């Protein structure tokens, strides 16, 4: 995973612990930004008073934060349980059917293009250490790397902070402006700027173009604004 672009457009490396948090940050900020912007536009379009918009906005922020954080905790916990179960299965097979597992190791090395002599040496080296043997099977047979498992609590906290970070920019004008009409343009403007900034940061991390990525995130905000405005207008008409 990368964070900065070096000369010639080659991305620079970032620590694995930071790289694993990029997904939660992008997903959380985008979710908080898009959902809260859409809700604020919708309740404003339904002609609610300023204090009602704030109540609805804060309730949505709390619900979104808790939902995304708990969902992240549960999903990471389930993933870790699955990885541990797969490792336990490989440990069992290495100890109960070592001949078959040794043949699988040799087959993997042969598929990678090593000579018969190299295959024999590499197989003997890999299977000499049970822990190394299990890690090899996890990586090459199942495609799972168990260098370190993500912490469910850490992932949940990162997600909660990201959702809050995305939700606050569109909500802030409603805390400071005297009316919903004065707050709404500023809320949309801050949401657009935040969305473009998030897209640009994501592009830098991925080593791609910031403008294209920024526009993609802005389009998500545009969809939330249009959807919220349409839904709020229809709700206001229906409720009179």
Automatic annotation (TrEMBL):
Short name of any one Pfam family annotated for the protein: VIT1
Protein name: VIT family protein
Gene Ontology biological process terms in this record: intracellular manganese ion homeostasis
UniProt superkingdom: Bacteria
GO MF term list: manganese ion transmembrane transporter activity
Organism: Candidatus Hydrogenisulfobacillus filiaventi
Signal sequence residues: none
Membrane topology according to the record: Multi-pass membrane protein
Bilayer-crossing regions: 55-76, 156-177, 183-205, 217-239
InterPro entries the UniProt entry points to: Ccc1_fam
Main location group: membrane
GO cellular component, one term: endomembrane system
Subcellular location: Endomembrane system
Keyword terms: Membrane, Transmembrane, Transmembrane helix
Keyword field contains Transmembrane: yes
């Amino acid at each position: 995973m990368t964070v900065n672009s070096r000369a010639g457009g080659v991305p620079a490396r970032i620590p694995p612990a930071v790289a694993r948090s990029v997904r939660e940050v992008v997903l959380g900020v985008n979710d908080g930004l898009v959902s809260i912007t859409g809700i604020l536009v919708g309740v404003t379009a339904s002609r609610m008073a300023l204090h009602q918009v704030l109540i609805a906005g804060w309730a949505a922020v709390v619900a979104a934060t808790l939902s995304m954080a708990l969902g992240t905790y549960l999903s990471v916990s389930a993933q870790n349980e699955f990885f541990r179960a797969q490792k336990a299965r490989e440990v069992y097979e290495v100890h109960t059917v070592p001949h078959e597992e040794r043949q699988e190791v040799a087959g993997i090395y042969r598929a990678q293009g090593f000579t018969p002599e190299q295959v024999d040496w590499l197989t003997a080296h890999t299977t000499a250490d049970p822990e190394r043997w299990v890690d090899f099977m996890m990586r090459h047979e199942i495609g799972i790397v168990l260098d370190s498992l993500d912490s469910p609590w850490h992932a949940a906290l990162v997600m909660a902070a990201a959702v809050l970070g995305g939700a606050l920019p569109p909500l802030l004008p409603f805390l400071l402006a005297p009316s919903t009409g004065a707050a709404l343009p500023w809320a949309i403007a801050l949401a657009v700027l935040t969305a473009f900034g998030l897209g640009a940061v994501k592009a830098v991390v991925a080593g791609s173009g910031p403008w294209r990525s920024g526009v993609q995130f802005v389009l998500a905000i545009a969809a939330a604004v249009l959807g919220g405005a349409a839904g709020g207008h229809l709700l206001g008409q229906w409720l009179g």
